[in-house]
Design goal:
Blueprint: E1 9-11, H1 20-26, H2 37-53, E2 58-62, H3 66-75, E3 83-88, H4 92-102, E4 106-111, H5 120-129, E5 135-141, H6 153-162, E6 168-172, E7 191-195, E8 207-211, H7 213-217, H8 231-235, H9 250-267, H10 269-290, E9 293-295, E10 307-312, H11 316-328, E11 330-334, E12 349-353, H12 360-376, H13 385-398
Parallel strand pairs: 1-11, 3-4, 3-5, 5-6, 6-7
Antiparallel strand pairs: 2-8, 7-8, 9-10, 10-12, 11-12
Length: 399
């Protein structure tokens, strides 16, 4: 008999849990879209978005998911026949490369697999071999949501510099912004893309592209640029509607304003990074204590603070996902990239999202539910997982 009759919890790696305050801010009639509070609210978003991204440069808002931000980044900087280098550490770097290829951009791929980060040494060699500088940009993700690896962005920037190569540096922070430390300007990132539905705690529907002056300088020559994806008017409009190439996503903007109030003005971005590190350590400690499950990324320094990919030898992950959702009200993430639907190994993977609006009550509830599921399904596992997780959280306060 199911016990799933309370408030359900989403612990997938995005969309993340939305704060009640964000939902309440969106629950209102449509405003005047030509003057007044909406225009003022929109203008207030950009400084806070730049604080989260740690940049003083440009930001553009799109009515789209993260794939739209991918396309915007490509279309504003590339022309048909250009060549880019994509560093693949899971499924989403590959997806960005596939989109570029479909748009007529030649892609060179360095694939590092599903269980490790990008190797700067290999990047240096690839760029040194590009003696005529045909590679226009290097693309990567900070956190690949499929593998849960976190790439070392400063080291990859250094690799480009060490090679003496002029390529632009693009980073996908869709899964990581507001969760993993990211410093766009200090780390030398030229273009960064993200979405609203993960660390920014707003219902899916908006994406963002941040770009510096070096990236803006190549925009005029980019022949893939189209009126809708052109970031020029969006970042520096002559009239308000150009921010969105038409009607604004009004209710999303109200929700984002409240989310940024929480993230930037109440918690602070440094504290948010620290909270996510604590939450992730609690998840890792629990998985290691259970023993029957395995962390996909072995080195803690290379793990995401937003999502954890977990493996099992047989179908335990698949059965856990089903039990937790239907018997207890906890939705866990499916595996991506490591297996395809219908394959036997599909049930050997699950992902635990711990991004955005998450506190110890929510996280310990999720881990306790997984622990209960292992017991209810009579899966042999180690003891002390919840003790280990609570000790990791306590360590946040003990220093």
């Amino acid at each position: 008999m199911s016990l799933n009759f309370g408030r359900e919890q989403l612990s997938i790696p995005g969309p993340s849990v939305m704060p009640d305050r964000v939902m309440a801010a969106m629950h209102r009639p449509s405003p005047n879209i030509y003057e007044g509070e909406l225009i003022e609210l929109t203008h207030s978003l950009f400084p806070d978005l730049k604080t989260v991204a740690q940049t003083k440069h440009n930001a553009a808002i799109y009515i789209s998911n993260g794939h739209g931000a991918w396309e915007a980044a490509i279309s504003n900087t590339c022309s048909r026949g250009d060549t880019i280098l994509v560093l693949v550490t899971g499924r989403f770097g590959q997806g960005w490369a596939e989109m570029a290829d479909q748009m007529g951009v030649n892609t060179k791929i360095l694939d590092f697999g599903m269980d490790t980060d990008a190797d700067p040494v290999a990047v240096v060699q690839m760029l040194k071999d590009d003696v005529d500088h045909s590679i226009k940009a290097v693309f990567t993700v900070q956190t690949d949501t499929a593998s849960s690896v976190q790439n070392n962005i400063p080291n990859l920037r250094k690799a480009i510099d060490d090679a003496g190569h002029p390529a632009l540096f693009f980073v996908d922070c869709i899964a990581s912004l507001g969760c993993d430390r990211f410093e766009m300007d200090a780390w030398g990132v030229d273009v960064m893309v993200t979405g609203c539905q993960k660390g920014l705690m707003t219902p899916a529907g908006m994406s963002f592209v941040f770009f510096n002056d070096k990236a803006e300088a190549v925009r005029e020559a980019a022949d893939l640029k189209t009126p809708y994806w052109d970031w020029g008017p969006r970042a520096n409009p002559e009239v308000y509607y150009q921010h969105f190439c038409g009607t604004a996503p009004t209710h999303h903007l109200y929700g984002l304003r409240e989310a940024l109030n929480i993230l930037v003005h109440e918690e602070g971005i440094e504290a948010a990074w620290a909270r996510h590190l604590t939450m992730s350590r609690a998840v890792w400690a629990a998985v290691e204590a259970w023993g029957c499950l395995e962390l996909n990324i072995k080195d803690p320094a290379k793990r995401s603070q937003a999502v954890t990919t977990v493996l099992s030898s047989n179908d335990e992950c698949g059965r856990l996902r089903h039990w937790c959702e239907h018997q207890a009200g906890l939705t866990l993430g499916i595996g991506l990239g490591l297996a395809e639907p219908g394959q036997k190994s599909w049930d050997n993977v699950m992902r635990i999202g711990h991004m955005g609006h998450v506190n110890p009550v929510m996280l310990m509830g999720a881990l306790g539910t997984i622990d209960t599921g292992l017991k209810a399904m009579q899966v042999p596992h180690g003891s002390g997982a919840l003790d280990a997780a609570s000790a990791a959280i306590a360590g946040h306060f003990l220093g």
